[in-house]
Design goal:
Layout: H1 3-24, E1 28-32, E2 37-39, E3 48-53, E4 56-61, E5 67-73, E6 78-79, H2 81-86, E7 93-96, E8 100-105, H3 107-116, H4 118-144, H5 147-162, E9 163-165, E10 169-172, H6 178-185, H7 189-201, E11 205-208, E12 211-215, H8 217-231, H9 235-247, H10 252-271, H11 277-302, E13 309-315, H12 323-335, E14 337-341, H13 348-358, E15 362-366, H14 370-385, E16 393-397, H15 403-408, E17 413-414, H16 418-430
Parallel strand pairs: 13-14, 13-15, 15-16, 16-17
Antiparallel strand pairs: 1-8, 2-7, 3-6, 3-8, 4-5, 4-7, 9-10, 10-12, 11-12
Helix pairs in contact: 1-4, 1-5, 3-4, 5-6, 6-7, 8-9, 8-10, 9-11, 10-11, 11-12, 12-16, 13-14
The structure holds cobalamin.
Cobalamin is lined by residues 260, 263, 267, 270-271, 277, 280-281, 284, 318-325, 327-328, 364-366, 368-370, 395-400, 415, 417-418, 421, 424.
């Protein structure tokens, strides 16, 4: 069963369970303020609780003082039943994440429902089975997945279980702090903060008020598909994922990010000798083809934006690496810049001639080899010699460039990736 089906079934089960309990007119309602504890670990079981509205967190304090969260309970969620049925004290703490209402059933009332209401018993059994399955899934994830994968999985599960569909994603309708998420993922809070920021930067999650919004599972699957297709250099797969991305209206920026992230993984594998140069070339050609297919969408998405300025862009002489240049160029176009692409292996004289001809606001250069970085300096010198340096802002990029190096060759700006490159260009236009 897929995660999505499981979540849909669980949600439906919670709904039916709550309906059944409410129809019995048993139990009293308790209102909880945000952060209020329903019961502590070690408390005797005085009630079994069914969540009526809001969200609660069920967690345990481990002997070393860390907290481990088992689950978030939404409407229809059940707290205290396992401890009651097994005849021991609560071994978890249940605390509200936002304003919540619960139905508190006395053990005698719970027993009455169990013994006289067959529908209640069957729903309860399903809930307990589901909870056992989630626990074993989580134990498997803890053993097999790293923190980043667990975080993605947990957010996706929360979005499926407690998400409200919005235009671009699923809004998790619970006030979750970084600490709450860290407890659910079994990691420390500072790691989770860094990883959440990383996911935010990639555009996979974002905040809406106090709630997290997670990209839809369908879009997440497409982005994973794009990344994988570049990594495994499968052209036909990449083509079909790009088609799906276009059909499903995936943000072109996210699609570009996913392709770049696949290429970054290729770089890492090449650097650690796990891939040959030929593999890199295959991945690069898949990436190039995908970029060409996505380009019309990035341009379309930028059409509402008025032209911000003109950029002359090229990879410097002696260098044929152009994937990075093409991505930056595409995002600049999407943001509303007019980009004049001079291609690769561009000598200084051609850059100078293009600046003279097009009078751009920005001259952008890419260099990927340590030997060709120096050619960026030569271009800047050639602009000086032609009396054009003061007419244009020069920005540089490419893996070997550092902010220090950019300063040394007297460039006006440097950015480590496409997203920041666009911000840099935009910032320079405001000066
Ligand atoms: C793909 C690749 C190739 C492909 C290029 C395909 C293409 N069409 O571009 C092929 C296989 C053809 C190739 C050839 C070569 N390559 Co090569 N290649 C790479 C590899 C694996 C990935 C580069 C890449 O495309 N990254 C993905 C893109 C998206 O990232 P990016 O370019 O960094 O761009 C991002 C940022 O830097 C920034 N950015 C880029 N440009 C700009 C510009 C501006 C203005 C701004 C603001 C930002 C910005 O934004 C981009 C998007 O986020 C790197 C490894 C690496 N770690 O970088 C080696 C690497 C760059 N190659 C290397 C080498 C040595 C070569 C060859 C000499 C190999 C050979 N022996 O023939 C030839 C060079 C040919 C030449 N004269 O240029 C070395 C360079 C070593 C060095 N320090 O000088 C590297 C580092 C691999 C290594 N570890 O040895 N390569």
């Amino acid at each position: 069963m897929t995660g999505e089906h499981f979540a849909r079934d669980a949600e439906e089960l919670d709904r039916q369970f709550l309906e059944r309990v409410e129809a019995s007119h048993l139990g009293g309602i308790r209102c909880l303020a945000r952060g209020e504890v329903l019961h502590w670990q070690g408390d005797p079981v005085e009630y079994v609780f069914v969540v009526r509205s809001g969200n609660l967190k069920e967690y345990a304090l481990l002997p070393d003082g860390r907290a481990y969260a088992y689950r978030v309970l939404g409407a229809g969620g059940l707290a205290g039943a396992t401890a009651y049925l097994l005849g021991h004290d609560h071994d978890t703490i249940t605390q509200s994440l936002d304003e919540a209402k619960v139905i508190a059933l006395q053990p005698s009332e719970f027993d009455r429902l169990l013994t006289t209401n067959a529908r209640f018993s069957s729903l309860l059994m399903k809930k307990l089975a589901q909870s056992a399955k989630s626990s074993s899934d989580r134990a498997r994830d803890l053993g097999l997945l790293d923190v980043q994968q667990r975080l993605k999985r947990s957010l996706m599960d929360l979005a499926r279980r407690h998400g409200i569909a919005t235009e671009r994603g699923l809004e998790i309708a619970a006030d979750l702090t970084h600490e709450d998420i860290a407890q659910l993922v079994a990691a420390n809070r500072s790691t989770i903060t860094v990883l959440l920021n990383e996911l935010k930067k990639q555009g996979l999650i974002w905040k809406k008020g106090r709630h997290w919004v997670v990209i839809t599972p369908e879009h997440a699957q497409i982005l994973d598909g794009l990344r994988e297709a570049v990594l495994s250099a499968r052209a036909w797969e990449a083509r079909s994922w790009v088609e799906r991305a276009v059909e499903s209206d995936v943000d072109p920026m996210l699609a570009l990010n996913a392709l770049s992230s696949g290429m970054r993984q290729v770089e890492e594998l090449y650097d650690s000798n796990e891939l040959e140069l030929a593999d890199v070339m295959w991945s690069a050609s898949v990436m190039k083809e995908s970029l060409a297919l996505i380009e019309p969408c990035t341009i379309a998405s930028g059409q509402q934006v008025p032209s911000l300025g003109t950029v002359v862009f090229g990879t410097v002489q002696g260098d044929i690496h152009d994937l990075g240049k093409n991505i930056v160029s595409m995002l600049l176009t999407a943001r509303g810049f007019r980009v004049i692409d001079l291609g690769v292996d561009v000598p200084a004289e051609r850059f100078v001639a293009a600046v003279r001809e097009h009078q751009p606001d920005i001259l952008a250069m890419s260099a990927l080899l340590t030997t060709t970085v120096q050619n960026q300096r030569l271009v800047i010198q050639a602009l000086e010699d032609a009396g054009l340096r003061s007419t244009v802002k020069v920005i540089v990029g490419g893996a070997p460039i550092t902010p220090h190096l950019a300063g040394e060759i007297a460039a006006d700006g440097y950015a480590p990736d496409a997203r920041e490159a666009v911000e840099l260009a935009w910032g320079l236009m405001q000066l």
